[in-house]
Amino acid sequence: MAPDKIKKLFPQVPDRISGLIDLAYNLWWSWNPAVKMVFKRLNPQAWVESIHNPVKMLRTLPEETLLAASRNPAYLRNYDIVMSRFRQEMHRKHHWFSENFPYNHNLNIAYFSAEYGLQHSLPLYAGGLGFLAGDHLKESSDLGLPLVAVGFMYSEGYLHQHIGPDGWQQDIKEILDRDAAPITRVYYNHDDQLVVRVPFIEPSIYVAVWKVEVGTIPLFLMDTDIPENDPANRSISYRLYTGDNEQRLKQEIVLGIGGSYILDVLGIRPSIVHLNEGHPAFTIFERIRENVLDRMSFEEASKRVRDTTIFTTHTPVPAGHDAFPHALMDRYFKNYYPLLGIDRNTFLSMGHSPHGSQDLFNMTAFALKMSSFKNGVSKKHGEVARSMWRELWPELAEEKIPIHHITNGVHVPTWLDPKMVLLLNKYFSPSCPQWLKVHDKPLLWELVQEIPDEELWAVHLQLKRKLVNRIREHKRRKWVDENTDPQNVLSGGALLDPYALTIGFARRFSTYKRADLIFQDIERLKRIVNNPWTPVQIIFAGKAHPADEEGKRIIQKIYRYALQRDLGGRIAFVEDYGEQMAQYLVHGVDVWLNNPLPPMEACGTSGMKASLNGVLHMSVLDGWWPEAYSGKNGWAFGDMVPGPDHDRKDADQLYALLEREVVPLYYMQSDDGIPHMWVKMMKEAIMCTAPRFSASRMLKDYVRMGYDPALKKAAEYRL
């Protein structure tokens, strides 16, 4: 949106502090705690009521509040420092990327993903895949990558969760208020929003274009909920991951072909493309079409596109990959086949998979065939992916199959609690003043050993109290303002004890996550949680997909356990889990529990976020944990090969671990009231996780292993 158009939305903001508007529309503020304070200091209560959304807050603040700030010398000093830093960061020419990869040509990277978890004011995500994509963009900005991103604007994409009196999940739709979110329209002239037709697809689909600023990274979002579309097509971008197969196909056509075309309209010709999962894989066809249009043969165009495409797969089970019937593909692509210079059979064969029917076009198989670099998202997942897709390369031994692994990482400035940052500043800054800019260096994190146990423990207890108070206050307000059922208040955490050992389990409620594993032997669990000298409480949070009845049944089961008096109020189910509650949980619990059915966990970044803050991880050896577990930074349990009575055996190991190691260690406090051995493990967790499982390390791996070779190919092709 043109700057003058944005400023007209905020007539009450004085010129002296008008930079707040630019700052509010760039999510850079969201991973810089000192910058957040510029907004919070305007009116702390309004900041809370806006749910930490500066655009919404600025729209509602009275003029006198803003005028007072513009005349307050103390506020202005802080404002000027922040704005100077913001402008410097947005125009900085020397970054890690430019210093280490000085290309002779202006090359760029296009990143496509169906979802992005950036900040709760922009609910464009369903789960871990989205937050991984959001962290990818933030770290790309920090490292100075020449990257542009493409995704969807989901106008009805976010579902709030309410648990009814019977414990059943109710899905409450939230309509995105575009004018109260950090998102702007893209204009093709001064007055009209850019609307484009997805090329060569019939029936016609139109998309309006929006933009999100993620530091220096532009994220372009497509919106089909516009008058130019018929009702069926308007709903394409309503919500994530629709269960309707035809609607899902249309989403992926818009994301891949429409997204690629929009970049072309905007004058952006990607040198290379990174596909985050198979959903946007149709962009491969659109890039081939553009090359064929330039009088290139299909074979040569395919080679160029393959050489400059990177693909990341996140799904460790065949059934989780999108596949579309050929008859459905014909309906939308019948006019597209000849534009590539190939016939229908050649086109459809590119999506043939060894898994499933011959008449399905498999998006993951297609992306794997048409990418020069492909990877799973942990070492274990790389092994699983090579085994799963080995039939695509029948001539190769399994260990030679060209699917690599780059283990996911989390964006440290986003997920490290500000109070932890202050503590680390105290002990890191004397040796390394700019430590956050080099936080992927393992040697740096050895300084954690210099932090006195009592200081680290004090910060942890403060974050734990903050978590418990947040949950209690939320339930109190629900009860007062919405007349919530008292049972919902009790089950939702009103009885939580800030001094009890607290275990957190928060993630999407799919059956393979086994959220109810710890309830296998309910009498044994009662003895663990109700011990008056060593009490234990467990906080559950998470949503089931609207169509996942079994996931909803697991939530109902846990909700009912939370109401049982003989469990002593030690079980809580926190409804409406989202990005903000995730922050409280990964900062504030003592133990992060993870017990998926192996090998179905591709990575599991929530555990990284918790460990980064000194929360101890207790997990089966799946996903990222086999790479991280040392015996000193958390616990491992469970059998890696599922067999008869697998759940009961894993639960027995979990109970034994709690009874013999976890609970005694937590309550083994010295005379000073500090569990020094527990704190020692906290330090090990931080030292292990922060450098090795950061988005900084992850993105540098992508650059070295995937982006750099592809960019060199693009330079050869002059792309």
Number of strands: 22
Portion of residues within helices? 40-55%
Strand-residue proportion: 5-15%
Overall morphology: globular
Structural class: alpha/beta
**Secondary structure tally, helices:** 29
Please give the alpha-carbon distance between the first and last residues. Answer: 28 Å
Unreliable segments (pLDDT under 50, ≥5 consecutive)?
none
Largest sheet: 10 strands, mixed
Account of the 3D structure:
This protein has 719 residues and is an alpha/beta fold. It is 44% helix and 13% strand. The strands form 5 sheets. Strands 1, 4, 7, 8, 9, 10, 11, 12, 15 and 16 form a 10-stranded mixed sheet that branches. It is globular, with a radius of gyration of 26 Å. The two termini are 28 Å apart. The mean pLDDT is 95.
